[in-house]
């Protein structure tokens, strides 16, 4: 299994949670094709609303990829994004700043926001646990780990 972070504004994350899906990189399929059923995906929201909402800088959702392939939907005649289905966990938002020193994917702690500019990227199991434990109550976490 692979663990992913997807950088998305909170308003778009909320839309995905309600619809049980994720999109990435402006609806392009490339990174979604790399994901597999059962992969963990954590959503980091730099802002509350895309593109110019107030800064948030928090992890806002977590779930597992629930299908085998990306699929395309028609949002409007000129916008047909690719998506993956996600089973989201009940969670609370977790500000990134208290976690920076413990997150190994953030190599330069002074420039911690740089990595999130990649949109979707992989993280290791250690970083997944640091973030997940700050977002998910232990009782929910224990019932979903390894499933």
Explain what this protein looks like in three dimensions:
The structure is a single chain. This protein has a single domain, classed as ph1033 like fold (Roll). It contains four helices and eight strands; from the N terminus they run E-H-E-H-E-E-E-E-E-E-H-H. The chain is of the alpha+beta class.
Helix content: 10-25%
Q: Count of DSSP helices?
A: 4
The parts where pLDDT drops under 50 for at least 5 residues are none
C-alpha Rg, in Å?
A: 15 Å
Major sheet, described briefly? Answer: 8 strands, mixed
* CATH fold type: ph1033 like fold
What are its keywords?
147 residues; alpha+beta; ph1033 like fold; eight-stranded mixed β-sheet; 4 helices; 8 strands; 22% helix; globular
Brief summary of the model shown:
The chain is α+β, with helices and mostly antiparallel strands. It has one domain: ph1033 like domains (ph1033 like fold, Roll), CATH 3.10.590.10. It has 4 helices and 8 strands.
Write the layout of secondary structure elements.
Blueprint: E1 3-7, H1 10-19, E2 21-22, H2 30-34, E3 40-47, E4 55-65, E5 71-72, E6 82-88, E7 94-95, E8 120-123, H3 125-135, H4 138-144
Parallel strand pairs: 1-3
Antiparallel strand pairs: 1-8, 2-6, 3-4, 4-6, 4-7, 5-6
């Amino acid at each position: 299994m692979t663990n992913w972070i997807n950088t998305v504004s909170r308003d778009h994350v909320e839309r995905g949670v309600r619809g049980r899906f994720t999109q990435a990189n402006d609806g392009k399929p490339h990174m979604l094709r790399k994901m597999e059923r059962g992969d963990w995906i954590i959503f980091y929201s730099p802002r509350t609303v895309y593109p110019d909402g107030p800064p948030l800088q928090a992890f806002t959702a977590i779930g597992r990829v629930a299908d085998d392939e990306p699929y395309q939907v028609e949002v409007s005649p000129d916008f047909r994004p690719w998506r993956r289905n996600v089973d989201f966990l009940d969670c609370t938002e977790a500000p990134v700043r208290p976690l920076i020193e413990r997150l190994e994917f953030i190599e330069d702690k002074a420039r911690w926001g740089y990595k999130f500019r990649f949109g979707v990227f992989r993280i290791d199991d250690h970083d997944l646990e640091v973030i997940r434990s700050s977002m998910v109550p232990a009782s929910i976490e224990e019932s979903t780990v390894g499933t």
